[in-house]
Amino acid sequence: MAELDDNRSSVQDSLQQVTALLRKHEQNLLQQHGLPRPQQVEELLHKQDLAALQKKLDQLHPADVAYILEALPLEERLVVWDLVKAERDGDILLEVSDAVRETLIAHMETRELVAATEQLDTDEIADLAPDLPREVMQDVFRSLSVGEREQLRAAMSYPEDTVGALMDFDMITVRDDITVEVVSRYLRRLDEMPDHTDQLFVVDRDGHLRGLLPVSRLLVTDLDVPVSKIMVAESVKLHPDEKAQDAALAFERYDLVSAPVVDSDGKLVGRVTVNAVVDFIREETDSEKLSAGGLREEEDLFASVWSSVKNRWTWLAVNLVTAFIASRVIGTFEGSIGKLVALAALMPIIAGIGGNSGNQTITMIVRALALGQITVGNARKLFAKEIGVSFINGLIWGGVVGVFAFLIYHSVPLGLVMTSAMLLNLLLAAVMGVTIPLLMQKLGRDPAVGSSVLITAITDSGGFFIFLGLATLFLV
Amino acid sequence: MAELDDNRSSVQDSLQQVTALLRKHEQNLLQQHGLPRPQQVEELLHKQDLAALQKKLDQLHPADVAYILEALPLEERLVVWDLVKAERDGDILLEVSDAVRETLIAHMETRELVAATEQLDTDEIADLAPDLPREVMQDVFRSLSVGEREQLRAAMSYPEDTVGALMDFDMITVRDDITVEVVSRYLRRLDEMPDHTDQLFVVDRDGHLRGLLPVSRLLVTDLDVPVSKIMVAESVKLHPDEKAQDAALAFERYDLVSAPVVDSDGKLVGRVTVNAVVDFIREETDSEKLSAGGLREEEDLFASVWSSVKNRWTWLAVNLVTAFIASRVIGTFEGSIGKLVALAALMPIIAGIGGNSGNQTITMIVRALALGQITVGNARKLFAKEIGVSFINGLIWGGVVGVFAFLIYHSVPLGLVMTSAMLLNLLLAAVMGVTIPLLMQKLGRDPAVGSSVLITAITDSGGFFIFLGLATLFLV
């Protein structure tokens, strides 16, 4: 009985949470965007009415249900998940983050998972596949047609960061020897067109891509004109092995809604649509932000303490190693610090500003590298510019910290050592800020990952060494 | 004569630069994507043939020309800019970054600027307007029709981060009492349809939005069906004053290609298309990255040293203030450091790891806030989780640094002080890492800006205070 009460109060808790989220969500999106907003749902929810909550969930877009699931603690999340209609499970699993998806899948039975997955397109099944238990994938595979199995195998064979992973197979293809009228009649026989169909793909008898037929041209062209006359023969073509990053760049530059994917023989194998590209861009910048913040990967907001600890482990360990090195650099100069304790108070200033300046340079260079703007010809110019900026900043801010040191410790030589150390550390920051990303690029590594930690380590240890070294030479 | 030679060698330099860039660019995009790639252009460029370069530039997409201009140092950039056909100037100015746009506009005469601007749509003119000289805008304004002036005035009246600034006016509107056949005949009389027309907008006599007519439905529906039967009545509607960020979220969630913008009376005033949203997302994440790296704004890769110095000033100054504070915290404990110099070498470890851990927490929380996932109900749970993570990390990494201190300085009490200080600083980092972004949000500020600097300042000064304070109490 106690257990039952517990359960009931947990359901009540969860309903209150969901009420709050739904209200917030409606303020955010639904009201503003005029999406359907049934009357009196809030009151129903206040009454802890599971049936009403279920009804409300049924009316929401899968992406909105996903949003609510993401924001709920595990227990409440599973209560809501059980209320979602089974036939929507697949679409919602596609929308949630990897971390939350794992928690939902762990809660489902094999039978439910198979049913949810079977309703998806093959390219969507491929997206879910890595998170699904082996026996589920085997059951799903058996339920597919031969052609679908082929598609699924193809989609699963491409690494996550390639065009192949973004690709879907929902294309309408036509031949180039028919007229606009025939195409129009053909389309009118369809029940519906695939999402994001801004163009039809013109192929020959063997499936080689001959051109693109934008829907907008189809609509404004006279009915008796042949497709071959209005199709666009020259266009962006993607290849399944190409980097997804490059495809995203092409979509951004040329404002595409969809683009064909062809194999090495020029055969049409799929298409990429702008919604897949937008999701890719968001995920990519998201994971850059997370790694810049020192997190290994996306973290379920309500992950267990233990899995959070593991997610943060890597960067803390790296940081600890660089901190130990810096500590040993200072340790070498303990004799000088013992004689002039002011050094201990001043040294973090040199290290800190050096790190700040180095990160500014590295941000510039990493960005320019990502945009492909750095060539052998202009690298030297960039180098000269960064040295110039650091020189001026070194004089200005070095002067400021020199005056600061003088005002507090009344020693002109100490002030001069501060100024020189600042200037030298900023120059070090500029040189390494340009060199590190260029070198990483040359070694085939992503300059965006780890550059910042590396430059901070160098300007820390380097700053301590320069400042304490100069002080040892000239002051003690 | 010497001057002429100088000029000639500069043009040669520039041509070599452009050759390198074009080759690189073609490797990146053109070859892979099968865009037209004229034969023997490279050889022509090697021969320093301006006419051939011009021809090549003419064949490139405006976004590609913009890419090349971005990557060239100022002098070479202007040589290439002069080769671009005047009628393409407007489109290219729209594609380059703000910083590079300024350099190009400064180089153009009023007459040229007016000609370039006049060829653009009103929403595009509004985008350029802030960078154009006043007299240019006056001339352009005079050349517009009354309706266009109204559009331009409307487009310019919205702040940069609102839906109004993303909006364009290229909509096809239809009435709901006509049939699919009438719509089809109407469309066939057009020369072309606006880019990104995935749907027509159904309006009543007074211009109120009644629904949306997706082109894909138009194409699959029988000709005698009336528009009212197949239009989508309930849909996402944007408002011009709404945050662009919210519109971007709606496009991502609901996979939109275009969305109507209506005023408070429900009248259709414009539309937003996915390409504007993609550009917005890219610019936004770009500026977040820049500010995370300590840069005030996007910097022309080849900006003068002086303007770069100014761009980096703000964050260096902020950092200097926090460094001075940390320095004074250490200064308070100079007596203790004088007695036990090891403290100076060990204190940066406590501060550094605290900053790292605090930034991890803040990255999580800022992300969750941006996604709207934090409510009053779950904030307490989050708090408890972060404290838990820091407690475990404090024990583990505190233990590691304690052993490190013991191994080097052979003092158990010193090791214990290290461990306790680490644990306390990580707890401080967790508490402030959750509190700072929530507080900023409450105060109506963007939690993404400045949170990281603030937490680092707190864990630095706090870490020094905790460690040196404990050491003073128990060791000296």
Secondary structure elements and pairings:
The structure is a homodimer of 476-residue chains.
Chain A: H1 2-33, H2 41-46, H3 50-59, H4 62-70, H5 74-83, H6 89-95, H7 98-106, H8 110-118, H9 122-128, H10 134-143, H11 146-156, H12 163-166, E1 173-174, H13 180-188, E2 199-203, E3 209-214, H14 215-220, H15 227-230, H16 244-254, E4 258-262, E5 268-273, H17 274-292, H18 305-332, H19 334-339, H20 342-370, H21 376-409, H22 412-442, H23 451-474
Parallel strand pairs in A: 1-2
Antiparallel strand pairs in A: 2-3, 4-5
Helix pairs in contact in A: 1-5, 4-6, 8-10, 9-11, 16-17, 18-23, 20-21, 20-22, 20-23, 21-22, 22-23
How would you sum up this structure, described in words?
- The structure is a homodimer of 476-residue chains.
- In chain A, the strands form 2 sheets. A 3-stranded mixed beta sheet of chain A has the order 1-2-3. In chain A, strands 4-5 form a two-stranded antiparallel sheet.
- The first copy, chain A, has helices at 2-33, 41-46, 50-59, 62-70, 74-83, 89-95, 98-106, 110-118, 122-128, 134-143, 146-156, 163-166, 180-188, 215-220, 227-230, 244-254, 274-292, 305-332, 334-339, 342-370, 376-409, 412-442, 451-474, and strands at 173-174, 199-203, 209-214, 258-262, 268-273.
- In chain A, a hairpin with a 5-residue loop joins strand 2 and strand 3 (209-214).
- The N and C termini of chain A lie far apart (78 Å).
- The first copy, chain A, has 476 residues and is mostly helical.
- Chain A contains 23 helices and 5 strands.
- The interface between A and B is large, with 143 and 143 residues.
